[in-house]
Amino acid sequence: MLSAPAIALAGVGKVFATEAGGSVTALSGVDLTVATGEFVALIGPSGCGKSTILRLVAGLDRPSEGTVSVHGGDPEALCRAHKLGFAFQDAALLPWLDVSGNIAMSFRLAGLATDAQRVAALIDLVGLAGFERARPDELSGGMRQRVAIARALALEPELLLLDEPFGALDAVTRRQMNLELQRIWSAARTTTLLVTHAVDEALFLADRVAVMSPRPGRIAEEVTVPFGRPRAPALLREAAFHALEDRLTEALLPEAG
Ligand SMILES: Nc1ncnc2c1ncn2[C@@H]1O[C@H](COP(=O)(O)OP(=O)(O)O)[C@@H](O)[C@H]1O
Ligand SMILES: [Mg+2]
User: Fold this and answer.
1) Which of 197, 111, 183 is nearest to 150 (CA)?
2) Is the same domain home to 23 and 106?
3) Which ligand is nearest the CA of 45, by number?
4) Which bound ligand lies closest to the C-alpha atom of 17?
5) CATH code, 206
6) Ligand 2 (ion): which residues have CB within 5 A?
7) Which structural domain, as residue segments, surrounds residue 138?
8) Do 173 and 223 share a structural domain?
């Protein structure tokens, strides 16, 4: 028997009411599937509905038309079962808690006893051993994002949703975080949907890249990333990488008149 894909969007449309009494069609006819264990990157121009797709997959909002299913069921069920990990551009850590405390918050929010061994293992996994007692204001931006990713992974989610998690970082830190995320994903193989506006980040990390059109957003193109794993930084200098990066960057530009 074929098992249901981890994520399936079919004919998804989303219309928002505006304050002025009008409406905005954010998404129209979006079809996207993500297999279990797959890493898919979603790229597209600002305002094309990338975050809206993540919110629908997380069960935080409902489509106006079409269906969104996660493991063949209602997205809300996964969220309620605390099997969903979510990290945003802003790490949004609690400033009065240290690194361990912020990661342990996942357990507390789910009403579970904190698994101290799991917290320690996650701190190791994201390369923050020695910083257990540090508060967010003592950490760099990249370190804060690692805490946010560890927190998202704390309950061993079946699905990891990342919304421009490195968007606020400088280019060098972003590169390091891309390597870290690849390492973390390779160890855990959690199904991941990453929203990014950086084409190189999408190509470096993902198995498949879905390119969205401007609003109303739909999937304009899907590209299977041909590079083997693990991927080293040297890949970023290869001609084949640049060729694909250029082609996808072009696909993101508004069509010439
Ligand atoms: N809650 C909302 N109410 C009204 N409009 C919204 C709401 N959320 C998003 N939008 C609009 O939907 C479009 C897509 O938004 P979003 O998904 O945030 O895009 P992206 O993440 O690709 O930049 C934008 O035009 C945005 O203004
Ligand atoms: Mg967004």
Assistant:
1) 183
2) no
3) 1
4) 1
5) 3.40.50.300
6) 50-51
7) 90-156
8) yes
Scored b (16 or more CB within 10 A) or e, 154-188 reads bbebbbbbbbbbbbbbeeebbbebbbbbbebbeeb
> Would you say residue 91 has pLDDT above 80?
no
- For ligand 1, is residue 52 a contact (CB within 6 Å)? yes
One domain for residues 172 and 53? yes
Q: What is the pLDDT of residues 96-108, one digit of tens each?
A: 999 999 999 999 9
Using the 3D structure, point to which of 113, 136, 156 is the last residue of a domain: 156
Shared domain for 119 and 238, answered yes or no, is no
- Among residues 169, 170, 236, 168, the alpha carbon closest in space to that of 202 is found at 236
71 lines ligand 1 (CB under 6 A): no
If asked whether residues 103 and 219 sit together in one domain, one would say no
Q: How many domains does the chain have?
A: 2
Per-residue pLDDT of 112-132, as tens digits, reads: 999 999 999 989 888 899 999
User: What distance in Å separates the CA atoms of residue 139 and residue 174, rounded to the nearest whole number?
Assistant: 15
The structure's pTM equals 0.92
Indicate which residue's Cα is closest to atom 18 of ligand 1: 51
pLDDT tens-digit readout, 175-205:
888 998 898 888 889 999 999 989 999 999 9
Residue 255: predicted pLDDT? 63
Beta-strand pair 84-87/219-224: unpaired
Residues 71 and 101 in one domain: no
pLDDT value at residue 170: 83
Residues 191 and 253 occupy one common structural domain: yes
Q: How far is the CA of 66 from the centre of ligand 1 (A)?
A: 18
pLDDT, tens digit, 9 for 90 and up, residues 51-83: 999 999 999 899 999 999 999 999 998 888 888
